[in-house]
Design brief:
heterotrimer, A mainly alpha, B mainly alpha, C mainly alpha, A: mainly alpha, globular, C: mainly alpha, Helix Hairpins
Chain lengths: 477, 640, 107
């Protein structure tokens, strides 16, 4: 039942916000996301004490086709729910001291997004899962479309159709599984218990894989992403990169791996090579990007490529590492996009070449920006290191050469991140008397909390690992 | 049992050692503005406390004992537990003393040197952070903890090289250092994967125990050690990853002294000494280490001969000396390598600090062609610099003589050709070090009138560290006197338990008879004296000046331009990658992949555009089509 | 009683009649351009179908067909009401009911 509460808070808040106006709606959004965060922490303690029991909610929706509204919770779900609900208040907070039109709609959509994301992570019935998966697309489409920058109509249309097309493949896959399953149900546990015959899994794999690969995105299904990240409003980009793409990587572990195990085995070499190739490919492209948000977009592709590679290594280290890295990447990428937003907000510049000398005017901002950059380049003691260490070790166990190739990311990552940091923050001021106020209160809270979490997880990653260990034992056999 | 109890008492002081610099970092970073110049004193005090604690450990650690303890379990997954813990043994204590001792002196020196800098507090917070990571590196009881320090010092090096961040050339140098180090770090990381996979853990004990179940020269061990050596190449600036170190001189001079001469760059040597068992079990790797070391040593010495920036000369001499230390490791003389690390830390820190004092006096001038005759203006600096120069040149009885002699003797008994090359390298070292000395301090002043007016000795916070280091540069050598002169080699005996394990694999081939040993010392001294005389004749007697950059020709030009290695790297690595980046973006990403995606979208659009032509808007046509359609359906119905 | 009257003629006659009526309606819809006449032709088609339904109903001795006829008559009445209202408003706007002119609704 607790899972229903986790869903209803953001949903009700989203409806309520529609009736508020102006700055009031932003405050309300902040309050509700904080309430949700508090409730999530409560849920964590309950889960620790009593396990999944209090979260289990099962209600028959339709007898034919047989659909259950089945919400539940395990360590992995809880981790993703926590990530979502920790990031949301920060994302709302980052909107303070900024101009936004029709704020009530904007934040209402954002909370609706939170509702859908929570649903995706808690759904244990394929049909409900699919509904939440698609539901999450709607608010982000409107956010990107209405509040986006240049070329937004074209870019968001591409994003929407691209991801929708992928999802349809998944829907087809689910329908096939539904008809084939002996119990005629898309219940997660029954799908896991009765996998389809391996002759079918060979192509079923691709239906699911492409849907997730587009969302993640894995090269070569990524071309929607840099455009969208660039043109969406920063808060939308944070939602997309921080949480929404985790839907893809989460689903790889939750759905793809257990329900088509033979297909995964069959295509593992190809897919892992694709992921690792994508890591290096995106890293190299990121080096010469001229636009900050695009650079961050490509760096994000590289990072999630490594996460997927770790997942497809199909061993403990790789999958555990991917979960740690999902959280870590969620934190760092939100922080980085926020830094980009702070710079854009002050200078109205997004081109890397036209910037510089920020550190002179805003040393505090420069320092926190650097900390997040370091988290992103996986310096030890930051969460990024723990994640990448485990991921690369997972890939290493699969193949040594592949891990060295994937390991290039720690070199190339330093190259593009430090290049960006140097050109944007260091050096002389581009303009005389550049006005660049240092961090405002809301910015300080966001950056400091992200920075602190990066270090906290870097020092004590074990809670995450312990949380997800039991469920992974059932997934990796 | 009693022994164990006694050891556990040392745990808390040992764990506190790195905490004080960390505390200092946090305080100076967050309250730098309020602390102002007190930040420098605070930071120095923190290091002093750590130094005292290290001394406490040094005194209280029983002989032949070592203490390894876990502080907390860091990463735990499956059956792998990677814990965060420290190891206190004689090797780490030596390094602790060097890092905190010299670190403290350099902190003190910086109070004077950085006095007028607007980033005063920031500078000290970085320095403290550096010491913190360096202590982690030294104290770690596993490769993973060592790696934390390893990357952490790289970060501090990045921060401090680019300390004056307004200058883009400095920022480039900082970035270059970080990235080149990262290349090495990848080797280290992959080596850790091998160890974790095959030995099931990363702490030194597990790895050594696992390695000893294998046979000597096993491919696995060779691979691991070679990969570790790649890490050492990056951190300790060996060919081919050395080019960052000369550029790193962009940082403030105390940084060059602390990080890029005395401590961080010797981390590679420390790491190999720490892994002496697995290296000893991989003779092939030792061979590689030796050759890379000797070639680097010689190569850097050649470049050093033609540099005109005082700090660049010192930087190349550091690369060259580090090469010599790797030679020692390569021939299996681990304790000689560590001995040279220690003596080198003293005299090279002294040289850099002396150079800093010169630069301070000259108001920022670094070109030795514009100096000269400084001896009478800045006396303390001159004498301490002279002592350090004598020490690095290997003149009896200064510290460098003993440690260098040990390395040369060890290489003589292992490999004659390496001995010849190493001797040439030290001969060149003596030459260019005295070249710098003479050009800076002798003859008449060649700078501007304004500079001449400004010349002054540095404040006491700078000269006191100089003097202390000078004393150590004189006496440190006596800790390790060769067998001819003394029956006890204190340094070697002290470290012996650490290198016990590797003895078995190296064999006892190190005993030269006294005659040979004396002969080697004489040869080395004569060679050094010859070079010094040549330098004296050239630069004091004949008053030759290094020619202007444009006038150099031939090999000299190549040497002055660092053999164009940077340009070569730029051509074969940096340019291709940037071009590849653009090509991949424009050609592959935008054109090929996106084209396929857009082609899909276009196909849908095209179909729509084609079919909608049927939608004429003419009702008559619609009705006609409908009737025809109905008739066709009826027809089909009738036929089938 | 009614059944007898209806059954006075062979059923084929009704078939032929309603086919002729239906064809006239179809041809009218296809050929004429005046929307009003097209509407009338549609009515003709509907009525021919009604006739057929009634005759079948009579011959089969089953009232289902007649129920359908009532439905059709109601729907046709509604349809004529809406259709004529549309036509009137179109005529008021563009002063014609020529369907060839009314071709705005296209791509």
């Amino acid at each position: 039942m607790l899972s229903l509460t986790l869903l209803s808070i953001p949903l009700l808040a989203s409806l309520l916000l529609l009736f508020s106006r102006g700055a009031m709606s932003r405050n309300l959004a902040l309050v509700f996301t904080l309430v949700q965060l508090g409730f999530t922490i409560f849920a964590y303690t309950v889960f620790k004490a009593e396990g999944a029991g209090p979260f289990d909610y099962m209600q028959n929706w339709s007898a034919k086709p047989f659909i259950n509204v089945h919400l539940s919770m395990d360590g992995m779900s809880l981790l993703m729910v926590m990530l979502t609900n920790v990031l949301l208040p920060l994302i709302v907070l980052s909107g303070y001291n900024r101009e936004t039109n029709r704020m009530h709609v904007f934040y209402s959509l954002m909370l609706f997004m939170q509702f859908a994301l929570n649903g995706v992570f808690m759904a244990f019935d394929g049909f409900i899962y699919y509904i939440f998966w698609e539901l999450a697309l709607i608010p982000i489409y409107f956010i990107a479309f209405n509040w986006g920058g240049e070329n937004r109509a074209k870019v968001t249309l591409k994003f929407f159709i691209y991801t929708l097309a992928g999802s349809l493949l998944m829907l087809f896959g689910f329908l096939f599984l539904y008809n084939g399953s002996p119990a005629n149900s898309l219940e997660w546990s029954s799908l896991v218990a009765n996998p389809s015959c391996s002759c079918n899994q060979s192509w079923l794999f691709w239906l699911f894989f492409i849907a997730f690969a587009i969302k993640i995105p894995i090269v070569p299904f990524h071309t929607w992403q840099p455009d969208t990240y660039q043109s969406a409003p920063t808060q939308g980009t944070m939602l997309l990169s921080g949480i929404m793409l985790k839907m893809g990587t989460y689903s790889l572990i939750r759905w793809l791996l257990p329900i088509v195990p033979a297909g995964v085995q069959e295509w593992q070499p190809l897919v892992i090579a694709l992921c690792v190739g994508g890591v290096v490919y995106a890293s190299i492209i990121a080096i010469m990007q001229r636009d900050m948000k695009r650079l961050l977009a490509y760096s994000s592709i590289a990072h999630v490529g490594l996460i997927s590679a770790g997942i497809f290594a199909l061993n403990r280290s790789g999958i555990q590492g991917s979960l740690v890295q999902m959280v870590s990447h969620g934190l760092t990428v939100v922080g980085l996009f926020f830094c980009a937003d702070i710079i854009f907000n002050r200078t109205k510049h997004e081109e890397i070449e036209g910037l510089g000398g920020v550190r002179l005017a805003a040393p505090k901002f420069a320092a926190w920006f650097l900390i997040i950059v370091l988290g992103s380049v996986a310096l030890p003691l930051t969460s990024g290191f723990v994640g990448e260490f485990m991921l690369l070790f997972g890939v290493y166990q699969y193949n040594t050469w592949l891990s060295i190739f994937a390991g290039l990311t720690i070199i190339l990552g330093a190259v593009y991140m430090l290049r960006m940091y140097q050109k944007v923050v260091l050096g002389k001021a581009i303009k005389e008397n550049m006005v660049f106020p240092d961090l405002m209160w809301n910015e300080k809270i966001v950056l400091v909390s992200i920075g602190v979490m990066i270090f906290a997880l870097g020092l004590f990653p074990n809670p995450i690992i312990e949380l997800t260990e039991p469920i992974l034992k059932t997934i990796i056999k | 049992m009693e022994n164990f109890l006694e050891l556990t008492k040392l745990i808390s002081p040992a764990s506190l050692i790195p905490l004080f610099p960390l505390l200092g970092f946090l305080l100076t970073a967050f309250f730098g503005k309020t602390l102002k110049h007190a930040a420098g004193w605070l930071a120095s005090a923190m290091i002093l406390i750590s130094f005292c604690l290290s001394t406490f450990l040094f005194i209280n650690l029983p002989a032949n004992a070592d203490l390894s303890f876990t502080i907390f379990d860091w990463i735990k997954f499956g059956n792998v537990t990677l814990s965060f813990g420290f190891l206190i043994d004689h090797l780490s204590i030596i390094m602790l003393l060097v890092v905190t001792g010299i670190g403290f002196l350099i902190h003190l020196y910086s109070i004077g040197y950085m006095h007028n800098d607007e980033g005063f507090a920031r500078f000290f917070s970085y320095l403290n952070l550096f010491i913190f990571f360096m202590l982690l590196l030294v104290l770690g009881n596993s490769y993973l903890v060592m790696f934390i320090g390893w990357e952490g010092v790289g970060l501090c090096s990045y921060l401090l090289i680019g300390f004056w961040f307004k200058n883009d050339a400095y920022n480039d140098a900082a970035k270059k250092a970080f990235i080149m180090n990262r290349i090495g770090d990848l080797g280290f990381l992959v080596a850790m994967f091998y160890m974790l996979f095959y030995f099931g853990g990363l702490d030194f004990e597990t790895v050594n125990a696992g390695a000893q179940t294998l046979e000597v020269g096993n491919t696995l061990l060779v691979t691991i050690t070679l990969l570790l050596f790649v890490g050492a190449m990056g951190k300790s600036a060996q060919i081919p990853l050395y080019t960052w170190l000369p550029d790193a001189m962009a940082g403030p001079t105390p940084v060059s002294a602390l990080i890029h001469a005395a401590t961080m760059v010797t981390a590679g040597i420390y790491m190999i000494a720490r892994s002496n068992i697995i290296f000893a079990m991989a003779p092939l790797t030792l061979e590689v280490v030796m050759w890379v070391g000797v070639i680097t040593s010689l190569f850097a010495a050649f470049i050093g001969m033609k540099q005109t920036d005082i700090k660049k000369v010192l930087a190349y001499s550091t690369v060259s000396q580090l090469g010599l230390m790797f030679v020692a490791l390569g021939v299996g003389a681990f304790s000689s390598g560590m001995f040279h690390v220690v003596t080198h830390a003293f005299f090279k820190a002294l040289l850099f600090l002396g150079a800093g004092s010169v630069i301070h006096a000259m108001g920022g001038e670094q070109d030795i062609r514009n100096m000269g005759g400084l001896a009478k203006y800045i006396k303390i600096t001159f004498y301490t610099f002279l002592i350090a120069t004598l020490a690095i040149s290997g003149i009896f009885p200064f510290a460098g003589f003993f440690s260098k002699d040990e390395i040369l003797a060890a290489s003589f008994s292992e490999h004659k050709a390496v001995w010849v090359l190493a001797s040439i390298s030290s001969m060149i070292t003596a030459f260019y070090m005295f070249r710098v000395m003479f050009l800076t301090f002798q003859n008449s002043f060649r700078g501007t009138e304004e500079q001449k007016h400004h010349l002054h000795e540095s404040p006491w916070t700078m000269t006191v560290p100089l003097s202390i280091l000078a004393i150590f540069s004189m006496v440190a050598g006596f800790w390790g006197m060769p067998a001819v002169m003394s029956s006890t080699h204190w340094f070697g005996t002290y470290l012996a338990p650490v290198f016990e394990g590797s003895k078995a694999y190296l064999g006892e081939g190190h005993h030269l008879d006294h005659g040979t040993e004396i002969m080697l010392m004489v040869i080395a001294t004569v060679l050094a004296l010859v070079s010094i005389s040549i330098a004296y004749v050239m630069y004091v007697k004949n008053k030759t000046l290094p020619e202007a950059d444009a006038e150099t020709t031939g090999v000299a030009k190549w040497a002055a331009n660092k053999f164009y290695v940077d340009e070569f790297y730029d051509k074969i690595i940096v340019r291709p990658i940037t071009i590849l980046s653009d090509v991949l973006f424009v050609l592959v990403d935008k054109l090929v992949i996106d084209l396929v995606v857009m082609a899909g979208a276009w196909l849908v659009g095209f179909t729509g555009r084609t079919i909608r032509l049927v939608q004429t808007g003419n009702t008559g046509f619609y009705v006609f089509a409908m009737v025809i359609g109905m008739m066709v359906l009826m027809f089909i119905q009738l036929v089938y | 009683m009614e059944q007898q009257i209806l059954q006075a003629h062979p059923q084929n006659w009704y078939l032929v009649l309603s086919t002729i009526l239906f064809s006239i309606g179809v041809m009218g819809v296809l050929m004429r351009r005046n929307a009003l006449i097209i509407l009338m032709c549609i009515e003709l088609m509907l009525n021919s179908v009604n006739l057929l339904l009634v005759s079948f109903s009579a011959y089969a001795g089953n009232t289902d067909g007649q129920v359908f006829v009532f439905f059709i008559m109601v729907v046709a009445a509604a349809e004529v009401a809406v259709g004529l209202a549309l036509l009137v408003s179109i005529y008021r706007n563009i002063a014609t009911t020529d369907i060839d002119v009314l071709s705005k609704l296209k791509w």
